[in-house]
Amino acid sequence: MHISPTPQDFLDQSLLLIQARPKTTRITTTYSTTSPSLRAKKTALWLAKKGKPTPPTTTTISPPTPTTAPTTPQQHTAHLTLKTYDPVSGTTIQFVTREIRDVGRLVGVLGRAARGMGGVKTQPDTVMSDAPVPTPTPTPTPNQAVLHVAEADVPRVGSPAPTAARIGTPGPGGEKQQQQHQQQAGGSGGAQGKGKKKKGKK
Amino acid sequence: MHQQLLSNEEFFQKLGLLFATTTKQELGSVFLTQKRLTPYDQNPEKSDTKPQEDTLADLALAETPGPVLVRATNGASKQNRDTKKIKFSTLIEPDAVDAFYVRYAEVCKSGMTALKKKNRRRKNKKKASKATKTEGASA
């Protein structure tokens, strides 16, 4: 059995299993709760089994406990287990959580898995569909090749500036300005540092 | 016992109730299972004898759209039936998968109230550390 550390890992592994056996793979989500009274009973039983004395309910009040005790009222505890299981191969993938913040993400995972189970194709990425299709350029004849070279020399209007132009735009003056900026920034930082030091001396 | 096949909306209503009743109980569980709906195989042993054909059929199935079955139960067994067994299910059509899971997430989030809330432990830790700091300063 594979126990996934993250919901993402659970999704990846489950999708692989669903892909391999879409007919038989099933995902079971178990949400189980325990009341505080039952928890107390169970711990008492466990301690009795171990031969340890049960902790006394009324203890001498130590300073940190009164601050923490009222903030944690006795509530039901619960855990959520997701299991992907294929009965034919016996493969199991499991993920366990106790936090509610994982629920939204996990239901998303279930939805993604259901798409795999139902054979619903995932939508293709919009970026790929919008991307321009590269037109196949025919192999240039010698004359055309000369023409291509001539075109290449002329800078295109719509195309982005070539790398040489990009480097050239700030110029040597621009570099100097940048350096000055850096120096100024460093100076201000130093002044603040001095101020802090003075504070420290006081 | 025949399980009830409900519409999606009825399923969510019942699931909300099931979560509410389970959280009130001393010890309770909700089991939710999802799988692809396939016709009932009367002779599973027969098909097991031809594993190669089966896998190929499975792979072809992955490409064809079909409904997904979602079952919900409280898992009350026959031996220890203090509570009545609740069992119902629904079908998700391939074109309604996204809409179903949006609603499903809402129902689960509102139903699974016994799970740990956000940052509860972290807040407590902060408070505890503050308390110790102030004590240290006063001492």
Automatic annotation (TrEMBL), chain A:
GO terms for biological process: SRP-dependent cotranslational protein targeting to membrane. Residues 50-73, 117-202 are annotated as: Disordered. Residues 6-117 form the SRP9 domain. Pfam families: SRP9-21. One of its GO terms (cellular component) is signal recognition particle, endoplasmic reticulum targeting. Coiled coil: none annotated. InterPro entries: SRP9-like, SRP9_dom. It comes from the Eukaryota. Residues 57-73, 175-185 have a biased composition (Low complexity). This is SRP9 domain-containing protein. It comes from Terfezia boudieri ATCC MYA-4762.
Automatic annotation (TrEMBL), chain B:
Residues 114-139 are annotated as: Disordered. It is found in: Cytoplasm. Keywords: Cytoplasm, Ribonucleoprotein, RNA-binding, Signal recognition particle. One of its GO terms (biological process) is SRP-dependent cotranslational protein targeting to membrane. Pfam families: SRP14. Gene3D superfamilies: Signal recognition particle alu RNA binding heterodimer, srp9/1. One of its GO terms (molecular function) is endoplasmic reticulum signal peptide binding. It comes from the Eukaryota. PANTHER family: SIGNAL RECOGNITION PARTICLE 14 KD PROTEIN. Component of the signal recognition particle (SRP) complex, a ribonucleoprotein complex that mediates the cotranslational targeting of secretory and membrane proteins to the endoplasmic reticulum (ER). Belongs to the SRP14 family. This is Signal recognition particle subunit SRP14. It comes from Terfezia boudieri ATCC MYA-4762.
